[in-house]
Specification:
Keywords: Repeat, Signal, TPR repeat. InterPro entries: CellSynth/LPSAsmb/PSIAsmb, TPR-like_helical_dom_sf, TPR_rpt. The protein has 590 residues and is mostly helical. It has a domain of 121 residues: Alpha Horseshoe (Serine Threonine Protein Phosphatase 5, Tetratricopeptide repeat), CATH 1.25.40. The chain is built from 33 helices and no strands. Helix 6 runs antiparallel to helix 7, helix 10 packs antiparallel against helix 11 and helix 28 packs antiparallel against helix 29. The termini are far apart.
């Protein structure tokens, strides 16, 4: 009877499986031969220890696996691995379970491997990795301790330092720290620095920043020239301002550590401290003048600070370096092209800031593509020329736009309307956005800000409290609500509590320090208000903070300093609403 195509296919598959099984058996034969001592030439050859039942067992296991019976194959091959004590066969069994997404079976096989071969580093490491993957930190100490005992000394620090990466996606980082902390604290000698680093990183993941800072200090003392403590300090900086001292102390004695300075500057940007970040990038432009990246970052910061002339100067310096032909990988070449695009976009924005729309248009023509950032700059120029309706059309998402692109486009349209002081239209756009993307805290927050601009304070409060309910660590919402109360001179004790909560979530952020200074002013604490507002203004000298500082200085009898602060702010941002209102009320000419 002739074979059907289906039967032929089955036989071909079976033949393939037999070949694969034969290859595995050959490999086992080679290892058996290699493991046996070399026999004298005169003696008969040494035969493999593999018997017929084992041969049959391995063959059946591979055939069952090929038939899609992973569970059967797992049991057959695991039994064979135990009988042969073969590392490669144990690895094969673990991989079979992983490919079948059977985590419990993979862990069972890895544990059997470690029990059969108690001195196998790979076996114990597999157990630890699988426990991390399955989020079972409480079971890790025993195999981890065994692993550190049997691993070669040179490998042990790396195994310890890798622990935070293994558990970085754990849904319960506090339990990870509780389980691994005692093991790490027990390490001494050459392993102590790696243990300090791992425990500090796990502490950061668990939100125990004070503990992480103490461990980072200990690590910095143990390895004064090491990089790990500085990486930890940079990551801790937004939450633990005292970590900054470790960084500045290192840079004081090692000013040539440019990578550390750049990471520090980025952390300052994240902490909303543009003045300090600009200072560090300025140092980098002097230390590494041929590198375009610090020039570009400095230009962006100066633009944010409304230092238009300084921004344009730095951006043009970055372009000189981006435009210099340089060899590199495809990724590096693409990064230079992207940097060039960003520089021209910001030069267009800078020209627009100083009212030179012609120069802004010319800079924009240097930019390739038609992404949202380019369209936004074009829309902004159109709006400045009275073509707001056309500008809004330019920002509309395409009919087939993804949700992410549509969300970004709606935010951009709302921002454009806000800049044009059309708060009602901006509120409408954001209301549409929050209805489409319910639960999006950023969109709800922006809608709340527009409600405040429209004087809809009850709506604003309800929206901000909704943000806090959805995301309790959203510090902007606490700050905005507290500031609104303070600015309207209502519910001042509650305002202070809200702002202090925001400051706890984002220590040292200038706009929050400004809010706290403003509520202290409303409470009549002029010295404390002046101190806080000076601190906020030093970190971020924008027009609104300057207006608050100027008013407090005026009320404190320091009119000359108040005039200077207000005049400098008016020179940078003459159209700022809060500043103009303060100048008018105090009858101060800019």
């Amino acid at each position: 009877m002739p074979l059907t195509h289906r039967h032929a296919h089955r036989r071909a598959r079976a033949a393939g499986r037999v070949i694969a099984a034969a290859a595995l058996l050959a490999a086992l034969q080679v290892r058996a031969d290699e493991a046996a001592p070399a026999a004298p030439p005169a003696e008969p050859p040494t035969h493999s220890a593999m018997d017929a039942p084992l041969f049959y067992q391995l063959l059946i296991g591979e055939i069952e696996l090929g038939n899609g019976q992973a569970g059967v194959a797992f049991q057959v091959l695991l039994d064979a691995a135990r009988r042969t004590s073969d590392e490669e066969l144990f690895k094969r069994v673990v991989n079979i379970a992983l490919q079948a997404r059977a985590g419990d079976q993979a862990l069972m096989a890895a544990r059997a491997w470690a029990e059969t071969l108690p001195n196998s580093v790979d076996a114990h490491q597999s157990v630890v990795q699988l426990l991390a993957l399955m989020n079972k930190p409480a079971e890790v100490p025993q195999p981890l301790t065994a692993l550190l005992r049997i691993a070669p000394e040179v490998q042990r620090p790396g195994l310890i330092a890798a622990l935070p990466r293994l558990f970085q996606r754990s849904p319960d980082p506090k339990s990870v720290l509780a389980a691994l902390g005692p093991v790490l604290q027990a390490q001494t000698g050459a392993l102590k620095p790696a243990a300090l680093y791992a425990e500090a990183r796990l502490s950061i993941n668990a939100g125990e920043n004070a503990r992480a800072l103490a461990l980072t200090r200990e690590l910095a003392a143990a390895l004064p020239d090491g990089d790990d403590a500085m990486q930890l300090a940079v990551d801790l900086l937004p939450a633990e301002p005292q970590a900054e001292g470790l960084i500045t102390e290192r840079l004081k004695f090692r000013p040539d550590q440019h990578a550390l300075r750049q990471a520090y500057a980025r952390a300052l940007v994240q902490a909303q401290r543009p003045v300090d970040a600009a200072r560090e990038f300025r140092i980098l432009t002097t230390a590494t003048p041929d590198n375009p990246a610090p020039w570009l970052a400095l230009g962006a910061l100066e633009l944010d600070l409304k230092h238009t002339t300084a921004a344009e100067s730095a951006l043009r310096e970055s372009l000189k370096r981006f435009d210099t032909p340089a060899a590199g990988t495809e990724t590096e070449i693409r990064a230079r092209a992207d940097g060039r695009q960003q520089a021209w976009l910001m030069l267009s924005q800078a020209a627009e800031q100083r009212g030179d729309l012609k120069a802004a248009e010319a800079a924009l023509k240097k930019v390739d593509g038609n992404g949202l950032d380019v369209r936004y700059r074009r829309a902004s120029l159109m709006a400045r020329q009275g073509k707001l309706a056309d500008a809004r059309k330019l920002l509309q998402p395409a009919a087939d736009a993804s949700d992410a692109d549509a969300r970004t486009a709606l935010l951009a349209e709302a921002q454009l309307l806000r800049e044009q002081h059309d708060y009602a239209a901006a509120f409408g756009v954001l209301k549409t956005a929050t209805e489409r993307f319910s639960g999006d805290t950023d969109l709800i927050y922006e809608q709340a800000m527009m409600a405040e601009k429209l004087g809809q304070y009850d709506d604003m409060e309800a929206l901000l409290r909704k943000v806090i309910e959805i995301k309790p660590d959203y510090h902007h919402a606490y700050n905005a609500l507290g500031y609104s109360f303070a600015d309207r001179n209502v519910r001042l004790p509650e305002a202070k509590q809200l702002i202090e909560r925001a400051l706890k979530l984002a220590p040292g952020e200038p706009v929050i320090v400004d809010s706290l200074g403003w509520v202290e002013f409303r409470l009549g604490n002029l010295p404390e208000a002046a101190k806080l507002l000076r601190q906020a203004h030093a970190g971020r000298p924008d027009a609104e903070i300057a207006a608050h500082l100027g008013e407090v200085l005026w009320a404190s009898g320091q009119q000359d300093e108040a005039r200077r602060v207000l005049a400098e702010a008016a020179q940078r941002e003459p159209d700022n609403e809060a500043l103009r209102e303060t100048l008018g009320r105090l009858k101060v000419k800019p």
